[in-house]
Structures are given as C-alpha cells and as structure tokens.
Amino acid sequence: MAQVISALQQKGGVGKSTLVCGIAYLLGRQGAKVLIVDADRQGTCVAYHDTAEKQPFNITAVTDEAGLRNVLATYGPDHDLVLIDTPGIESQLTAHVAASSDLVLIPSTPSQPDAIGASRTWSLVERVRAANGGRPRDVQIILTKFHHKARITARITEAFLGHGMPLYTHGLQELTGFKEMYSTGVPTGAAAGALQFLVAQMQRDGVITWSRAPESCQ
C-alpha cells in the first residue's frame, strides 16, 4: 500500500503545490510509482502535469471526501506514494485528507501570517490525530520561500521551535527555478539541487519511506 503524503496549510501561497509537484517529479524519476491527487480546485498540480510530456507520475483530481476515498482504495495499492494537494482553506475535506494520510507536510514561508496559518493547521492535524487513533503518524512543517541570512527566517524558525512545533530541519528556499518549473515541467539549476537535497534527507530520516533500491553488483 502506498505511503499517503499530503500538503496542508490554511494559508494559500505558501508552496503546497510546488512541494507536492517537486516531490512527485523527483521520486518518479527515481523509479517510484507516484500518484498526485489534486484536491485543490485551482488545479495547479493538474496544470503542472500537463506542461511536459511523459511526466514521471500519474495525476487525478477529486472534489470531495467520497472521491478521495475511492481514489485511495482503487489506485493506492498500485502506487508506492500518493501525494495529495489541498486548497488553502480549512474544510471537512482537508480534515479528511489529514485523517487519510501517513504524513502531513505543512509548508510555511517565514512570515507572520503564514506562520500563524501553519500553527492553526498543526492544531487541526493534532485534533484529527487525537480523534483518529494517531493517524496521521507524522507531521512536519516545511519552511519555504526563505532566505538563509534574513532575520525574519531566524525569528520564525525560533518561534516554531519555541512553541514545540515539528519544524523539519531542511526546507525549500526562494529560488527562481521553482517558478520556472510550472512552464518547463522540470525543476532545474539550484532549485533542482535544493529539492534533491530535501527529499534525500527526508528519505534518510524515514519521513519518506520509499527509496530507490541500491544497484546490485555485477
């Protein structure tokens, strides 16, 4: 059965779709069987899939809980990972997505409005976990669109950690390549390197459970 990974945030514009599309692209290139479920009516992931031929992942869209349950039951067993993109709003669907996930990623830029959104989303996920027997099993806040040397990055990082929130050790900084990938279909340059580093670290930490099998010696 696939590992189900969702990106949730009550605040829009924080990089949910970029995170989902980037992970799907990279792990698909590594050989994983990946499905994106686009539950955001904006359809950003569907549009990204259509920008380039032979994207290394499958895509489908849902609009409600019944559709999500059907997709997970029907296609989950045939994939290694299912990645779910969600709208930037709290709803019954987003709560159901959290309850259906093994891992919830909460993207946040280093700004006070986005950090507040991340905090509220984390609280929602914790309520879902308490009512759902501990599922999702893992929650990670991923810092996005940041600059390493900016004071606001350090302040938001300290605020997350000071409140005991699960801020992941690595994130995706502000890079032009993440914007360009929506027109080219392919993360390139520094953006590709940052994405590869983040995903590799998440695999090493067991946050993402799928990893490419080592090549056997001939």
Q: Over the alpha carbons, how many angstroms does the gyration radius reach?
A: 16 Å
Shape: globular
N- and C-termini, Cα separation: 31 Å
User: What proportion strand?
Assistant: 15-25%
Counting structural domains, the number is 1
Across the major sheet, the strand order is 3-2-4-1-5-6-7
CATH superfamily: P-loop containing nucleotide triphosphate hydrolases
- List the uncertain runs: none
Strand-pairing-aware structural class: alpha/beta
CATH architecture: 3-Layer(aba) Sandwich
Number of separate strands: 7
Helix content: 40-55%
Return the CATH topology. Rossmann fold
Order of helices and strands: EHEHEHEHEHEHEHH
Task: Give me the number of helical elements.
Answer: 8
Task: Characterize the biggest β-sheet.
Answer: 7 strands, parallel
Supply the CATH class: Alpha Beta
Arithmetic mean pLDDT:
94
Q: Explain this structure to me?
A:
The protein has helices at 16-30, 44-49, 65-75, 92-99, 112-131, 151-162, 176-184, 189-204; strands spanning 3-7, 34-38, 58-61, 81-85, 103-108, 138-146, 172-173. The chain is an alpha/beta fold and 218 residues long. The chain has one domain: Rossmann fold (3-Layer(aba) Sandwich), CATH 3.40.50. Strand 6, helix 6 and strand 7 form a beta-alpha-beta unit. Helix 4 (92-99) crosses helix 5. 42% of the residues are buried. The model has no long low-confidence stretch (mean pLDDT 94).
